[in-house]
Design brief:
The chain has strands at residues 7-11, 18-23, 26-36, 39-46, 51-56, 63-68, 74-79, 84-88, 91-95, 102-106, 121-123, 126-132, 137-142, 149-151, 166-167, 173-179, 184-190, 198-201. 0% of the residues lie in helices and 50% in strands.
Length: 202
C-alpha cells in the first residue's frame, strides 16, 4: 500500500529479485490470487469503476485489466485446465480468461470462510461450491458451463455456517451436511457425482 493505492509486486524469493511491478489506479486490492494458464489472476477495484478481473505475467507491460465483474469483492478463485472459477460477491463465475468466455453459474452463492478464503473445491475437472438451491443451501458441482452446473444432491443441506470443503488428494472431496431426521448432520465424501456421494459418519 503506497500513496493511497495498492502496488503489485513480484518476487523470486530473494531481496534482489523482488520488485514493484507498478503503482496504478488500483485502490482496493483483493488478496485472492490464482494462477491460470501462464498468468496470475486477481480482482481489484479501480478508481471510478467497480471490481474488475486483472491478470499479470509478472511484468508492468504484461499486467492488464481483463474485464469488469458483475459484483465484488472477489472472495476466492480456483482453476481447472480450461476454466478459472471465481466468486465475485454472491456471484459464481467461470471464465476462459475473456469477457466473451465468461458465464454466470449462480447468482446466489453462500460462503462461510474458516480462514483460507476458498469457496471452491476441485473434484476432477470440476468444482464444488455452495449455493441456494431447492429449498436451502445445497452443494453444487460445475464443469464451468451452465448446462454442467447442478445440485450434487438436493437432500443435502449445507446450512451455514458449514465447514469448507476438504480435498482428499485422491480426486474426492469431504464435507459436512445436514439431512432430515433421523440421520441429522454427518460427514460425506464425493467424487462429484450423485452416485459417488456417500455418508461416512455422524
Amino acid at each position: 500500500w503506497e500513496l493511497g493505492a495498492t502496488a503489485l509486486w513480484v518476487s523470486d524469493g530473494t531481496a534482489a529479485g523482488t520488485a514493484r511491478i507498478g503503482l496504478g489506479m488500483v485502490t482496493s486490492f483483493e488478496d485472492t490470487m490464482h494462477t491460470f494458464g501462464d498468468r496470475v489472476w486477481f480482482g481489484d477495484k479501480v478508481r471510478g469503476a467497480g471490481t474488475s478481473l486483472w491478470s499479470s505475467d509478472g511484468t508492468a507491460m504484461g499486467t492488464r485489466l481483463e474485464f469488469a465483474l458483475p459484483s465484488g469483492p472477489v472472495h476466492g478463485m480456483r482453476a481447472t485446465a480450461s476454466r478459472l472459477f471465481l466468486l465475485a460477491g454472491p456471484v459464481a463465475l467461470a471464465t476462459d480468461g475473456t469477457a466473451g468466455g465468461t458465464v454466470v453459474l449462480s447468482t446466489w452463492v453462500t460462503f462461510a470462510s474458516n480462514g483460507n478464503k476458498q469457496p471452491f473445491a476441485l473434484v476432477g475437472n470440476r468444482v464444488l461450491f455452495d449455493a441456494y438451491g431447492s429449498g436451502g443451501v445445497r452443494p453444487f458441482v460445475s464443469d464451468g458451463t451452465i448446462a454442467g452446473t447442478r445440485e450434487l444432491d438436493p437432500t443435502l443441506d449445507r446450512l451455514q455456517p458449514a465447514d469448507e470443503y476438504v480435498e482428499a488428494g485422491d480426486g474426492r472431496v469431504w464435507f459436512d451436511a445436514m439431512v432430515v431426521s433421523p440421520l441429522g448432520p454427518g460427514i460425506y465424501v464425493t467424487d462429484g457425482t450423485p452416485g459417488g456421494t456417500r455418508r461416512m459418519s455422524n
